[in-house]
Write a structure and sequence with these properties.
alpha+beta, globular, binds zinc ion, 137 residues, binds guanosine-5'-monophosphate
Amino acid sequence: MENCIFCKIASGEIPAATLYEDDQFRVILDLGPASKGHALILPKKHYANLYEIPDETAGAAMVLAKKVGTAMKEALGCAGLNVVQNNGEAAGQTVFHFHMHLIPRYEKDQVGLSWTPGTLTDEVKEEVLDKVKKILG
Ligand code: 5GP
Ligand code: ZN
C-alpha cells in the first residue's frame, strides 16, 4: 500500500518509537497517547481491518498483546490494560491498516472508553441470535 502511513512505519521507512519488532510485527508508541505507554501493534503486511486479516496473524497479534501488555504491567506499574481494536470509521478507525491499541490504565486516569449500557430486549436478542447464528453455523 503506497500511501499507508502504518506500512511505512512497520517497514521502517518512517521512524517510530519501537518497543518490539519481529518478522511479522512492529510495536510502536502512539503519537497521540491516551495514557503513558499507549502502544500500537502493527502487522508488517497491509490489511485494512479485522475482516481482512488472516486467522494466523490475528492469533499472533493477540499473543503479542499478552507479551507486551505483561511487560508494560511490570515496567510501568499500570493498574490495568485495555486492548482496543477499531474497525471502520463508525468505530473510530482513522488509520486503515489493522492495528491493536494497548492502553495502560492508571488509577483515576482520564481515559474515556466507556459507554452507556442499554437494555437487551427479547426482540433484539432473538433478532441478533437468529441472524448471526445463521451465518456462523
Ligand atoms: P485508530 O483511531 O485508527 O484506531 O488509531 C490510530 C492511532 O494511530 C491513533 O491513536 C493515532 O494517535 C495514531 N497515529 C496516527 N498517526 C500516527 C503516526 O504517524 N505515528 C504514530 N506513532 N501513531 C500515529
Ligand atoms: Zn498499510
